[in-house]
Amino acid sequence: MDISPAELADRYTIVALKLERNGDLLFKKELDTLAGEVLELKRQGLMQQRWVDELYRVNSKIWNLESKIKDTNVKKGDLSTIGSLALQVRIWNNRRTDVKRKITKKIGVGFIDRKKYYVKTAARTGK
After folding, report:
1. 49 Cβ partners below 8 Å, 6+ apart?
2. pTM of this prediction?
């Protein structure tokens, strides 16, 4: 598979969550393939189970927050709740990026994912 170890571990945990939470067996074959790839990375010393576990926990938290957003009723005016949940998703996505960056730095294989959030300034807003 032509994907960095960090991205592969991330994808593996996401597919595992899809299979566990949705029960959709369409993901079973992909999960088995990814599991084999993760196992091979472990054999090569390019992956540790604690990194996979950490990504699983982070992706599980993101999944839970996204589910809460879907379950929140926009028509009842729960926009502040949705906004708060969306900000939490952003925080957890940053943690996800941090874990993948840590993996990449430790093994020296793959690219480093960098996130940059821009602050509004007078020059950008025209004010």
Report:
1. 42
2. 0.82
Helices (H), the chain: 5-22, 26-43, 49-71, 79-107, 122-125
The number of residues in the chain equals 127
Alpha carbon distance 113, 98 (integer Å):
8
pLDDT digits (tens, 9 = 90+) for 57-110: 999 999 999 999 988 877 676 888 899 999 999 999 999 999 999 999 999 876
Q: Which of 51, 61, 54, 46 is nearest to 107 (CA)?
A: 46
Tens digit of pLDDT for each residue in 21-34? 998 888 999 999 99
Report the alpha-carbon angle 14-114-86, nearest 5. 55
